[in-house]
Amino acid sequence: MRHLSVPSDQTQVWLERCKANGWLGGSGVLSLDEGRRGVPLNDNAPAGEDACWEGLDHIDAPPRENGPRHWRERLPGELQTLPDSFWPSSYEVQGDVLLVKLEEEVRPHASAMAKAMMEQMPSVRIVCADEGVQGDFRVRDLRPIASRDGSQHTTTAVREHEFTIHVDPGEVYYSARLSKQRLNTYESLQGFRERLGSPLVVADPYAGVGPAFPLLLKHEGLVSGYLAGDLNPKAVELLTKNLESWTRKSPTTFSPSTVVCKDARTWKEDEELRGKANVMLVNLPHDSFEHLPDLFPLFIPSELGLLRGWAIIERTSLDGRVAQLEGMVEAAGGTPTQTFVSEVKGFSTTRCFVVFQSTITWD
Ligand SMILES: C[S@@+](CC[C@H](N)C(=O)[O-])C[C@H]1O[C@@H](n2cnc3c(N)ncnc32)[C@H](O)[C@@H]1O
Fold first, then answer.
1. Under CATH, what is the fold of the domain 175-362?
2. pLDDT surpasses 90 at 349
3. pLDDT at position 12, please?
């Protein structure tokens, strides 16, 4: 059976691409030498020399047999006697990195568990214990438990809305859970662009690896320029790499096309950043509201602006938040309209996760 030989961190990307094009074969992904994976192809897949494969090799190999349906069935016999509820019921996969939270009693068996998981999921290169999010950069504390090829790094790539995003869950915040919000942002900006009558300059001072951008930049005529940044230098490295790959083939020459590693609250002191944006995204959920007064000077004066952000707030304060936001805009010299602060479903905590937005006329 024909398989596409891909580097392990590209497995998810190629699986999705082949699936979307109707080229994916019915068997599982093969584990090949030198950290490569074999993605099964069916007869509809173009010939090996086609440019769509971007130079990757094709190999002929027997299809992967159907094995156990769950990784628990691959545990050593003595551990299979433990009840299913003993083991983690969920985990997250980012590219070829699997992240799993471990209860205390599972820790002594972490290595056997990680090996079973890797055996079950050939696209996983490394299994890490996720010890939770830390510090201002909101980065997870990851402890590698097992690695297929001995590598310990967590740089990898994920697919979101048909785009490849370079991520590193051990160094930079990225959450697939917000992908729906990013679609909503894209829709909001299309409406705002119509209203403004010209392409937008978008500022995202808490951009992380930049997941808000690919949808916006791909849409010709929606965005004319961007200001992107983060305080975490590792985030800025990946953000730069991602923006380069998303804009490389664009017919638009984005201006500005600025990427900075700076505290967002100090952007206003920089001539290149102050007064340049039509749209501002504010994604620092624990502090978004507190940072807003320092961010308003980034909007272009005397033009219409769109503010959109996310915050984690006390549920009891939700009712007063529109008035608070409008008060902050007015204090900065703007007139807010169409302001909303709405709870985002699916984040079940005692506090609530909200998206806020306001269209601002700057006099
Ligand atoms: C919740 S994450 C959001 C990242 C990205 N927008 C996303 O949706 O994936 C917040 C980001 O803000 C960055 N950050 C924290 N404090 C900052 C500050 N004062 N100025 C700029 N960036 C900051 C963190 O490093 C982190 O990448």
1. Rossmann fold (3.40.50)
2. no
3. 85
